[in-house]
Structures are given as structure tokens and as C-alpha cells.
Amino acid sequence: MTVEVGTKTEGKVTGITNFGAFVDLGEGQSGMVHISEVADGYVKDIHDVLTVGDTVKVLVLSEKDHKIALSIKQASDKPKPKFHSSHRSHDRNDRKPQQHKPESFDDMMSGYMKESEDRLSTLKKNTEGKRGGRGGRRS
């Protein structure tokens, strides 16, 4: 039996490397799950998520030259959000949406200039009185 791209199947983890895990699919076939396809979030060490001998549900991503690419995170039946939302956005759903007026270029530029002048004056104030600072007075 050959595995078809897009099918979900179960397999057993037979080996773990620092870049992924090898999964035995049965009937002499095995594939690899890249570390980026192990879990929804960032995985620093794959050993924190998988161990040899684990039975996992995988989705067949591709098959080329008898090399089978698998995904554990895409095989889960959890619905994928269509957009990333922050934790606060759920609180705002009950409220009336705020009208955000886009700033004009001149408004943004004047805000930038004000902020830049404030930072520059703070920098000058902190360096002028010190020895060896730029533009420092020496007596």
C-alpha cells in the first residue's frame, strides 16, 4: 500500500533527531516529521514533545523519491483560526468597535519630529556635563 498525499494515518515514532522525528507507517514505509511540524507552537527541543515508541496521528504532506514528509500539527482536528488574534481582542468583541481615524502624513511627521527632538535633547543633556563626552565643556 502506498501512502497518498493528504491522508491522515497513525504511526509509531522510531527515531528522534534534533531536526525531527522518524515515524513508521507500517508495511515497510516510514516518513519524517520536521520539528516545525510537531506542534502548533515553537518547539525548542523535540524530546520535550515526543519520545521513541509514541503512537502519533500524522498527515502526509508529500512523497518524493520514497521520502515521505509528515505533519503532526496539521493532522489534529482542531479548527485553524483564520487570523491571529491577541488575548485582548476577545474582550473587545462585546464592545462597540472603535472608529480609528488614520493619521495624515503631516501628523505622523510632526509626531516623529517632536519625539526625535525630545530624544536628542535628553541625549545632549546627559553627555554635555560629563568628561570626554561629545561637545562637553572643559575648564
Outline the structure in words.
By secondary structure, the chain is α+β, with helices and mostly antiparallel strands. It has a domain at 8-75: OB fold (Dihydrolipoamide Acetyltransferase, E2P). It is built from 2 helices and 5 strands. The N and C termini lie far apart (89 Å). The mean pLDDT is 80. Residues 91-104, 114-131 have a biased composition (Basic and acidic residues). Residues 6-73 form the S1 motif domain. InterPro entries: NA-bd_OB-fold, Ribos_protein_bS1-like, S1_domain. This is S1 motif domain-containing protein.
Provide a quick synopsis of the model.
This protein is α+β, with helices and mostly antiparallel strands.
Determine the structural class based on helices, strands and strand pairing: alpha+beta
Radius of gyration, in angstroms, nearest whole number: 28 Å
Question: Secondary-structure element order, as H and E?
Answer: EEEEEHH
Give the C-level CATH assignment of the domain at 8-75: Mainly Beta
Overall mean confidence score, pLDDT: 80
Shape: elongated
Largest sheet: spatial strand order: 1-2-3-5-4
Q: Which oligomerization state do the chains in this entry correspond to?
A: single chain
Helix content: 10-25%
Number of helices: 2
Number of strands: 5
> What do we call the CATH homologous superfamily of the domain at 8-75?
Nucleic acid-binding proteins
Pfam family, one: S1
Biased composition (Basic and acidic residues): 91-104, 114-131
Domain S1 motif: 6-73
Protein name: S1 motif domain-containing protein
